[in-house]
Amino acid sequence: MFSIWSYIRASAAALRHDSRGLAATEFAVIAPLMLVMLFGTIEVSSGVAVDRKVTLVARTLSDLTSQSKAVGDADMTNFFAASYGIMWPYPSAPVQATISELYIDPATSLARVQWSKGTAPRGTGTTVGIPSGLIGSDSSGKTLPGQYLIFSEVSYLYKPALGYVMSKAGITLSDTSYTRPRQSTCVFYGSETACPTK
User: Fold this and answer.
1) Each residue of 55-100: pLDDT tens digit?
2) Continuous segment of H or E residues that includes residue 13
3) What is the sign of the dihedral through the CA atoms of 7, 13, 14 and 16?
4) Hey, how many other C-beta atoms are within 10 angstroms of the C-beta on 77?
5) Do 30 and 38 contact (CB within 8 A), yes or no?
6) Before 89, cis peptide (omega within 30)?
7) H/E element, 176
8) Residue 135 to residue 150: CA distance in whole angstroms
9) Which end of the chain is more exposed for a tag (fewer CB within 10 A), N or C?
10) Are the beta carbons of 176 and 160 closer than 8 angstroms?
């Protein structure tokens, strides 16, 4: 009986000092957490990169349009194509973009659509809410006449490559940009538009 008890004590002492399986146990505990962190970092960093590119597309669309005195269908096709090129190396197919010219009515301080082109064009004459800081006014607070804005709207359905941390259905990233016409009071779109100043 004594020899059995001695053997058990010796085995327990040897087991306590034996660390051969410790690394495998630690790896089994840490590996899933590390994989989640790796895939999560990849998906989130790609999402942030795409979101930044969406912002650049919105700014580029409004910037290119605002540099013209007049634009036509061919110009808009080129503007959209140039803007979509910014999305590389991400696919540009999910990009939904619209460019509109807004006229700020001095009587009501409302921004109304003069013309709109793109994926989801806005109706001519419809109002668009804009930040109040974009509406110029005189010292008495009265809205100044003859104000125009080029307004671009861009959205992108970002679907992660792995879908391990983020939803495989994806998330919609969007941004807008406002630019004032640079070469003239407003940007004409063919013969469809005029530039009211009152």
Assistant:
1) 999 998 888 888 888 888 888 888 888 888 888 888 888 888 999 8
2) helix 2-17
3) positive
4) 11
5) no
6) yes
7) strand 171-179
8) 13
9) N
10) no
